[in-house]
Amino acid sequence: MKYQLKRIDTWSAVKIAFLIAGVVGFVVGALYAVILTVMAGFMDMAGLSGDMPDPGGFFVGAAGFIAVVVWIVLTILYAVLGALVVALATWLYNLLAGALGGVTMTLETEPVAAPAAASASSGAAPPAPPAATPPASDASTAAQDASGPDPQST
């Protein structure tokens, strides 16, 4: 069976992209926060924090606060920018698919095989698979959805 992807619903793609990019931003922000805090600790131990009145407490504490802010900002930034990029990509795909045609896909159904042990032990022939019915066209499906059963089928 050949199908053609003519249009992608932008809002549904943006919602999923927002969540996925937000999770990625959360993980990346956490990594940056850990690295920033560890680097602040090393700088304090090496005496590179300058001549602050309380080098150990203030410098590491300020770096921890900045790390949390960076974590939150990166999570939001990744989510928003990811959603914007996907919105632009789906808009561009829909525009080009309308002019040039969509992506064509060939799909196959996998054959359903009866378990060999069950049919061999019973001695009976396996039941015949049901006859495949072709998918309904959009017009007949829309008619059924709008007014119940298709009036032309009787």
Task: Provide the structure class.
Answer: mainly alpha
Main-sheet strand order equals: 1-2
What number is the mean pLDDT?
77
What gross morphology would you assign? elongated
Low-confidence stretches: 139-147, 150-154
* Largest sheet geometry: 2 strands, antiparallel
Helical stretch count?
4
Count of distinct strands: 2
Strand-and-helix sequence, N→C?
EHHEHH
Helical percentage: 55-70%
How widely separated are the two ends?
28 Å
Strand content: 5-15%
Rg is: 30 Å
Can you describe this structure?
The protein has helices spanning 10-45, 55-100, 116-122, 138-147, and strands spanning 2-5, 103-106. The chain has 154 residues and is mainly alpha-helical. Helix 1 runs antiparallel to helix 2.
Quick overview:
This protein has 154 residues and is mainly alpha-helical.
Keywords:
two-stranded antiparallel ribbon, mainly alpha, 154 residues, 4 helices
Describe the secondary structure blueprint for this structure.
Blueprint: E1 2-5, H1 10-45, H2 55-100, E2 103-106, H3 116-122, H4 138-147
Antiparallel strand pairs: 1-2
Helix pairs in contact: 1-2
